[in-house]
Amino acid sequence: MTITCAPSGIVDTKNPKQGIAQIADAGFKRILLDLSLDNITPFLEQCRKKGVQIPVAYAPWLSGNEKDADLKESFIFLAEESIRVCRIAGGRYLVVCPLAEGIEKPDLWERNRKFYLSLVPVAREHGVQLLLTNQCRDYNGHLLRGVCADPYQAADWVDRLNEGAGEVCFGFCMDVGVCSLCGQNMYDFVLTLGDRLKAVILRDCDGNHEGALVPFTSAGQGQARTDWLNLIRGLRQIGFQGELIMDIRDTVNAFPFFLRPEALKLAKTIGDYFKWQIELEQILQKYPARVLFGAGNMCRNYMKCYGEKYPPLYTCDNDRSIWDTDFCGLKVRSPESLRELPGDCAIFICNIYYKEIREQLQGMGIKNPIEYFNDEYMPSFYFDRLEMK
Amino acid sequence: MEIGVQTKNVVDDLNPENGFAMLAQAGFSCGDFSLNAYLPNSSIYQARLNPFFNRSVQELEHFFLPHKQGAAKAGIRIHQMHMPYPVYVPGKDQELNDYLWNQVAPKSMEICHFFECPYIVLHGFKLVRYLGSEEAEWERTEAFIDSIAPMAKEMGIVICIENLYDNLGGHLVEGPCCDVRKAVNRIDRINEKYHGEVLGFCFDTGHANLVGLDFEEFITALGDRLKVFHIHDNDGIADLHQLPFTFSRSRDNKPSTDWEGFIRGLRNIHFNKTLSFETAPVLDAFPKEMKEDVLGWIARIGTYFSGAVGGEKRRKA
After folding, report:
1. Same domain for A181 and A240?
2. Which candidate, A109, A131, A301, B198, has a CA 20 to 30 Å from the CA of B315?
3. DSSP character for A194?
4. Which residues span the domain enclosing A307?
5. How many distinct structural domains can be found in chain A?
6. In a domain, A96, yes or no
7. What is the pTM of this model?
8. How far is B282 from chain A (nearest CA, A)?
């Protein structure tokens, strides 16, 4: 999985030098190409200079409300040009929103089918995969589920388009903001789309109004307002390997100019965090053997969700009073036992004192790989927590 | 089509006859009996239960006899009632959950039967966070349904599952029974299992509006499985249970709830049962002196919906 930054609102299209530099300096190595920009040449040049890759582009939004054939032709022309530019910029994926505005519901599929399939020859020629995306519909100011917001419909459209194309030309880009505005179960959304999902636009909002905030910043009652738990659960379960696109324009714009670089760094850290959480099972899978450090709730949650699939050899704990006891089916041992581990066995720290324990292990001269386990976004939870001393 | 409304805030235990008479006077012919008001959800969540359901079935029937007689006298048919909810509280004592499951639920069925009420609405379990998936959550709800379905079959009652929401930091998101495809399959499967209609659906317009569901598609997909309604409106943000057509989110002041889609959906399935409003909070919002006027206005909105749905039928004929 790779993390990509959406530049809208961060990069000045006429003078992109500073914005792209700030994005690159924050640690982003990939940037989305927004083809609704007036002039993309300076943007592409700056990306090249800073060594920032462009894996994915976003086609200009196309209204479906074309009344005459000429306009319809110009839509197709614009989309085809977007494919060409996407390829020139180095992109594999082009997000092309479904046509919806002005189209009666019964006509939606047929109109979109014709539109998307007309793009197949150019997409094929340039090796660009076209990604549909989920949309809201504005009902007198209230954002409701629109075209492709229903994951069954989205999956069906992608499959039928690929069937029509005779090859895999189409995939899906999930806009988390749209899912949140529609209060959707994101776990089900992700699982229904499965490997059709090639990109995810990660943005926060309050769930009622459009927004592109840094994840975890829209909160109330001490809780995030976006269902990150079910999003991470879903992406982890399907082993998501696509593009994680961070659309954070509102947060970054709200920050004073002087603080924007720090806001971008925070966004990058959060992107890395998502990557880590989503890939947690892949990290567990990476090692032929593993032991845990910690015999508390986090260890208990590990055993509940992953104990059978990735069984640890044992767990260890600094509390000598529980050495040589059993906990959740594991023998609890002294940290000294870790000195006897085979070299390819990883130690997963199952305790929130990650840094301290890592330092303890390093101080002991342990050379085994040290990884962090975390139970905040588990596939399931116990109804209770153990009271630990 | 008949028009109904919640009995809460209208029918009281001291003189239920008066409340039912007021409903009839306002233009309703059906009641949604608010059984859940006798064991409020807030007290269940706090595990502070009142002793109401400690009564025997005979005692409960005796308690509700004046209500039944009052409704009959006023010509109000108890069309649907709401089982107290939740019937399972995660992380609470097993004793509490056993009580809800083994006392409150079956006694609610008995009361429903006593009122000769054909539909009882229940809330599915909200356990996605713990169990990890909606399917695992549904398994628990289905186990609960299985515990009362034999009673439902014997009594001729249809249990209705309702589309619900959950709360994330004040943001209301999809809860149980918001996936219409799954709901349809589950209803059909369970009814087949019991060789009879024991399960149906209660479509809650307010909850659907909160999570942006497409009213027309949802209702059309449900078809005849749609048995009862909780009709009410909100701003798309909070579960306000207010009058339809009340909310607008744009300066042209058009309604922000898709009532047109609601009517189209009802037309699509040729709905001809009862349109019932879950609008008890409206009566809290208006001055008490206006209660009868407000009830009349709710009934009038119901008549409008009925006409709008039936009007199409007439045009087709």
Report:
1. yes
2. A109
3. G
4. 287-372
5. 2
6. yes
7. 0.95
8. 22
